Amino acid sequence: MSNNTEPAGTSRTGTGSDQLSDVLNLDALLSEDELNLRRTVRRFVDERIRPNIATWYEDAVFPTEIVQEMGALGLLGMHLEGYGCPGRSAVEYGIAAMELEAGDSGLRTFVSVQGSLAMSAIHKWGSEEQKQHYLPGMAKGEIIGCFGLTEPTAGSDPSSMATFARRDGDGWVLNGSKRWIGLASIAQIAVIWAQTDDGVRGFLVPTDTPGFTATPIQGKLSMRASIQCELSFEDLRLPGEALLPGAKGLRAPFACLNEARYGIIWGTMGAARDSYEAALAYSLQRQQFNKPLAAYQITQQKLVDMLLEIQKGTLLAIHTGRMKDAGTLEPVQISVGKLNNCREAIKICRDARAILGGNGITLDYSPLRHANNLESVRTYEGTDEVHTLILGNHITGIPAFR
After folding, report:
1. Of the listed 92, 277, 309, 381, which one is catalytic?
2. Is residue 381 among the annotated active site residues?
3. Where is the Acyl-CoA dehydrogenase/oxidase C-terminal domain (predicted)?
4. Which CATH code for domain 252-396?
């Protein structure tokens, strides 16, 4: 078992690192309420995630015991209004995502699956009865949800999904499969997308329904402190009221995916920042050839390059969040942030690991864990290639997806 307490110098409770690393004074762009929220979530990460994350990661355990703690902090569905949801701003949600992912991508992913995907689907497309029934408990963490869109042969192209729901009297019969579905084995309610004779529709499926099977995917090298599952539906019968009445066509799940993609813009910068800070602290302490690593020009170049990309990526996140709060954010702009910040974050984490040398491959330090997690974050909610083609279509007017 690895040491599950990260070395001195990686804690985010102090202010010295902020003052040295926020060279553009981006904190000046945040309100006092936003800064207070950051302090609250950062404290939660320092106290509840950092001391345990290496063990959770090594043992491939998702800590269900902190789910209701997250609910009590207002982190679940925090950008949604009404029905017991916190109703915070897009920027506040982004700040929380950044701090959570500085702890671990798996924990931020839980908040995203619960709030940006499952709860958003119900909030956007559900009936009043469905909203009243599920959202208050989900906001408290008493009910866990999952979101089933991706299939074994339909990842980047969900229009080719094979899962099908056919009408049967007043109800539905669901058959098919899904893959890489977060939280499914611990969820009580699943938002499942399926083809029908009327196009793609969304359904609320209690996970104890006969014919529903969730099997956790084993042997993961990434997102180990999280849960992803294979789902299968075998003649699964649903009542008519299981249908999400407002969800028609792929625009419905895509609207939820854009909520999740937005959170990734912020979250990846949290992983990058934590890796940078671990490398900076190590380089100041580690002696080689009678002086600290930080005294060497190559090390300083690596640290400066990391800092520049973190500052630019964070500025991009803040700007994107302000547009979202103003109601002016377009999907293509979300693609800019998702593509750029994922790509830069994973490079930062790898470069941070290099500064740590051989010690960096252990769970005593965070950068390689973050880099491994970001392989998943970079892939889900649209790969680099997909977001590149979205942007390519935008600037040329020519779709190149097929």
Report:
1. 381
2. yes
3. 248-395
4. 1.20.140.10
